[in-house]
Amino acid sequence: MKAIIFDIRSFSVHDGPGIRTTFFFKGCPLRCAWCHNPESHQPGLQKLSGSRRLGKQTIPFTEEIGKIISLQHALNRAEADRLFYEDSKGGITLSGGEPLMQAGFVKAFLDGARLAGIHTALDTSGFVHKSVFQEVTMSADLVLFDLKIMDADLHRKFTGKSNQLILDNFKWLIRQKTDFIIRIPLIKDITDTTENLQAIRDLLKQAKYIQRIDLLPYHQTACNKYDRLGLSYSLNHLPSYPIDKQQYVKEYFNDSAPLVTLGA
Ligand code: SF4
Hints:
The protein is an alpha/beta fold. It contains 9 helices and 11 strands.
C-alpha cells in the first residue's frame, strides 16, 4: 500500500500534544485563500522547473514536489522517533493537504501505529464523505478539526467549497467519545469577524470532548511558496496577524475549552 506525501517533520510541537512526527499528505479539495501549504493542493507528484538569479548568473532548476511512501516505510519512520513520543507524551500526526483524500492508506497507517502503541492524531478539514470521515476518525486517538468560516456563502467564497459537509461531520464527531482539538485560522476580516467567532463559540458549547483550541494567526511565510509554484496569492499584501488581536481572541475562547493556544 502506498501514498503520496510532500513532507515529514520530526519534533513538531504544534500538531497535537507532546513532540510529534507529522506526515503531510498531498491533495486537498479546498483552496483556502490563506493556505500556508499550496504545495499540498495537487494530489499527484509535481515537477517544477524554472530559473533562479544568482548574482549575474541565471541558474536553471528542476524540483519534485511529493514522494511516494509505502505503509511499511511510514510505520518505520514513525517508529524511529518513538523515544521522543514517550518522553513528551507525543506521537504521530497525519496532516496535509487533506489526509482523508488518501483514506485507505491513512486508516491503515493509524491502525498500524496504534497497534505499535504510538499515539495517533488526524488533522482534517472535515471536507470528506461522511462514511469515510466516520470510519477513519475512529482509528485515531485524537482528531484535529479545522473550523474556518461558519457562514455558508463566505465559506464558499474564501475556500471554494460549501461548509455543509464539514459542519455535518463536525456535529457527528462531537457526539462521539473521541478527543479532539479545534484549529481556527485567524485571518483579518475573514475568519476573525465578531459574527464568525461568535458562531464558532456557540457551536463549541455542545462539544464535550474538546481538549484544546489552537488559534493559528496568519503570517506571510507562504508568499515565497506561491511564487515558487507560479501561483497567485490574493493575500500577499496582508500583514501578519497583530499580537494584541491574537490575545483578544484567545481570551474570547477561554471558556470554550480546557486550553487555548496561539500557534506559530
Ligand atoms: S484545507 Fe488546509 S491544506 Fe487545504 S487549502 Fe485549506 S488551509 Fe490549505
